[in-house]
Design brief:
Blueprint lengths: L1 E4 L4 E4 L6 E2 L15 E4 L3 E4 L4 E4 L6 E2 L2 E2 H8 L9 E3 L5 H4 L3 E3 L5 E3 L5 E5 H10 L6 H4 L8 E4 L3 E4 L3 E5 L8 E7 L2 E5 L7 H5 L10 H18 L2 E3 L8 E3 L2
Parallel strand pairs: 6-9, 9-12, 12-13, 17-18
Antiparallel strand pairs: 1-5, 2-3, 2-4, 5-6, 7-8, 10-11, 14-15, 15-16, 16-17, 18-19
Length: about 250
């Protein structure tokens, strides 16, 4: 399988939940508000024998009237209409902002015309009920009653015979993670349950997690299992290491 990170850049985020661009070569973290976290925002393309998968959809920022995510795809010789499946870990705005785009008349459309979108029904309901600032309901409402969307209701299962998913309830109440298994290879996408390499290696409870203790325990379990089974880990928020094979 081929892995293509689609970095949208580095940002800091604090209690305001506003993503502020951060230049790694110029900016200083200490100059930002107290408690600011430095993160990458980084969806992934996985090219398999069956699909061109997109894992989460970034912030949905526009650049000269075009989605940054679309530009990043085109820079890798992938047209947006080539995406066949979109796997959504959860619907926080930095993971689901690129689900849709708004046309000149103000109507929202799914950003990938030929893709099937997979999202937990419970996550969608929670997002719509909770709203701003964590969720941008006007951007994700287009998922509702859409023929391109598969709402998952089971806490774990298999998509198309080779994509395994499981709801963890760690980073957020209905967060899910994915294992993509093909030709004796396993790619693991933990999204915000396992956002950075250093969190896998050290015991760390994050205050921003719904269940920080559970997230820490899961990271340890996944890291140990991945070491035994040679998983490749994807890190959505790591500014230095987008993915690594655990050996």
């Amino acid at each position: 399988m081929q892995i293509i990170p689609l970095s949208e850049g580095s940002f800091t985020i604090d209690k305001s939940k506003i993503f502020v661009p951060f230049d790694l070569n110029k900016d200083e973290l200490q100059a930002r508000h107290s408690g600011s976290l430095l993160v990458e925002v980084q969806p992934f393309i996985i090219i398999t024998n069956k699909d061109i998968l997109l894992l989460d959809t970034g912030l949905g920022f526009m650049q000269q009237r075009e989605m940054q995510l679309h530009k990043n795809l085109l820079a890798n010789n992938i047209k947006p209409e080539h995406i066949t499946k979109v796997l959504l870990s959860h619907l926080h705005k930095d993971h689901a902002g690129g689900v849709s785009y708004k046309d000149k008349l103000g109507y929202y459309h799914l950003a990938f015309s030929n893709a099937v979108f997979y999202v937990q029904q419970s996550e969608f309901d929670f997002a719509m009920n909770t709203g701003f600032p964590s969720f941008m309901t006007e951007e994700i409402f287009v998922l509702q009653q859409n023929s391109q969307v598969v709402f998952l209701s089971d806490p774990e299962g298999i998509i198309d015979g080779y994509i395994h998913y499981k709801v963890t309830g760690a980073h957020s109440p209905h967060h899910q993670v994915f294992w993509i298994k093909e030709d004796n290879e396993t790619i693991f996408f933990g999204a915000d349950d396992a956002p950075q390499l250093q969190q896998m290696k050290h015991r760390f409870i994050a205050k921003y997690d719904f269940d920080g203790k559970k997230a820490m325990q899961l990271r340890r379990e996944w890291w140990e299992q991945g070491n035994k089974e040679d998983w490749t880990f994807l890190f959505y928020h790591d500014v230095k290491t987008p993915f690594i094979k655990n050996k």
